[in-house]
Write a structure and sequence with these properties.
The protein is α/β, with parallel strands linked by helices. It is built from 16 helices and 13 strands. The strands form two sheets. A seven-stranded mixed sheet has the order 3-4-5-6-2-1-7. The protein has a six-stranded mixed sheet with strand order 9-10-8-11-12-13, sandwiched between helices. The longest helix has 25 residues. The structure holds guanosine-5'-diphosphate.
């Protein structure tokens, strides 16, 4: 970890950024960057942009741009760091990196800056994982939740619980070490109270992952319906633009059309499908088979029915496919005289929405119903939602061990029974903060990062 690393941290826009971290960071950037004010970059104040010229490895002028130095320990990685903020073409960035490599710097690996920050105690593991969430966030709400976690929302509450458990275990250890002394019954009562409170908090946090995952990943949702029910029109109205071809010729949508739509606070991955009907056309049949498969894998089915027509055999395929699935019946074409008898739908669907995909009338009701149907009501995005499977699993394990310790304390078992389970909980919590995590887990976590972060 003593070597100096560099990577392009921003590219593809008018301005690109190269980050450098390690003992040689400031020296290496100083070697390729000459401040216009004539004083060496190595002497510049920390965190202040300096204007100057950037040279390639042969000393030829490459750009007129900015550089900035950050002196340890108050840096992202905890090491000396420097950045070059130059023009963003691949040519400039590659040549600038090459120039740095010629001064003893090597290419950074994926996530290596954040890994160094973690190893240098600049952030806990849950904060580092939140950095990744923030980079990959697809909605503002997901970003807000990740930002709060990056600032310690998960890490600090886990740390607090862990510290309290450690204090309790230390007390019990004292008793185990002096077995001849009487055990104060208050100690068991206090331990039980703490374990009770911690167990509930841990289960609450672990269970929030169900919603946290929806926040981070979005929800797969499929639009099913017979040909001409108005599926493509519904998709276009959801998107607010013409994406799918709308015609009154049945069988127009043959393949799956996938789009992301923000509904309330969540991202729906909506798939429009081929209309379900009996067909002899093999291409259309292949599309119908795909629609059926897609429906199985989706978290929500929007089952579209043409309200201006009586229920037909083709609608029965939609009813059958939606059975047992989380689904909303969309009774479309309310702007036309209604023919469909709803009774059959009421038997199967908990939610029926009347709307006109063509005019938009009734769409609001559908939009407000979708989040509630998938169990995602109004939420504050203050970092409380666990969005990470690894953390959720560790929280669940900690909760189980805490509960077992609680049972031991309540039953007045020997102190070592309480200690054993409490220590299991402490270890599981340490996996979240990073204190008891294995090297291979750390490697896996950071390998998911992009290079430059
Ligand atoms: P799909 O085959 O289920 O995708 O159906 P489309 O979205 O292609 O629509 C089939 C036909 O129904 C088109 O002529 C649409 O303009 C029409 N349509 C769709 N939704 C509505 C609606 O709410 N009201 C009316 N009047 N027509 C609609």
């Amino acid at each position: 970890m003593n070597d100096t690393i560099a990577a392009v941290a921003a590219s593809g826009g008018p301005i690109g950024i190269i980050r450098v971290s390690g003992a040689q960071a400031i020296g290496a950037v100083s070697a390729v960057f000459s401040p216009k004010n004539g004083s060496p970059l190595a002497e510049a104040a920390s965190q202040k942009l300096v204007y100057g010229t950037l040279s390639d490895k042969n000393g030829h002028l490459l750009d007129a741009c900015y550089a900035v130095v950050f002196r340890a320990p108050h840096t992202y990685t905890g090491e000396d760091m420097a950045e070059i903020q130059c023009h963003g073409s691949t040519a400039v960035l590659t040549a600038a990196l090459d120039a740095l490599f010629a001064h003893g710097v090597r290419q950074a690996e994926a996530g290596e800056f954040t890994r160094r920050a973690f190893l240098n105690d600049k952030m806990g593991l849950s904060e580092a994982e939140a950095v990744h969430d923030l980079i990959t966030a697809r909605t503002v709400e997901a970003a807000q939740n990740a930002a709060a976690q990056m600032m310690g929302a998960v890490g600090s509450s886990v740390q607090q619980m862990r510290d309290k458990l450690l204090g309790m275990v230390a007390h019990f250890h004292a008793i185990v070490d002096f077995p001849d002394e009487d055990i104060d019954p208050i100690l068991f009562d206090d331990a039980a109270a703490l374990l009770h409170q911690t167990t509930s908090q841990l289960y609450r946090m672990a269970e929030s992952y169900e919603r946290g995952r929806i926040l981070r990943e979005g929800v797969p949702c499929v639009i099913l319906g017979r040909p001409n029910a108005g599926k493509s029109t519904l998709l276009n109205t959801l998107l607010g633009r013409e994406r799918a071809i709308v015609t009154d010729i049945p069988g127009t949508t043959r393949d799956l059309i996938e789009e992301n739509v923000k509904v309330g606070q969540i991202l729906l991955h909506v798939t429009d499908t081929a209309g379900l009907r009996d067909t002899t056309d093999p291409v259309e049949q292949a599309g119908i088979d795909r629609a059926m498969a897609e429906a199985s894998a989706s978290a929500l089915i929007l089952a579209v029915f043409d309200g201006s027509k009586a229920i037909g055999e083709e609608d029965m395929l939609v009813l059958a496919r939606s059975a047992g699935h989380r689904a909303i019946a969309v009774l479309n074409k309310t702007d036309l005289p209604q023919q469909l008898d709803e009774e059959l739908l009421k038997k199967q669907f908990a939610h029926i929405v009347h709307l006109s995909a063509k005019t938009g009338e009734g769409m609001d009701r559908l939009l407000s119903l979708i989040p509630r149907t998938i169990g995602f009501g109004e939420t504050a995005f203050d970092g409380a939602l666990i969005t990470n499977a690894r953390q959720a699993a560790a929280l669940a394990r900690a909760a189980e061990r805490c509960e077992a310790a609680l049972y031991a304390a309540q039953c007045g078992m020997t102190p070592d029974a309480v200690v054993m389970d409490a220590e299991g909980a402490i270890a599981a919590l340490g996996e979240i903060t990073g204190e008891t995590v294995t090297e291979s887990v750390v490697t896996r976590i950071f390998s998911d990062f992009c290079v430059g972060k």
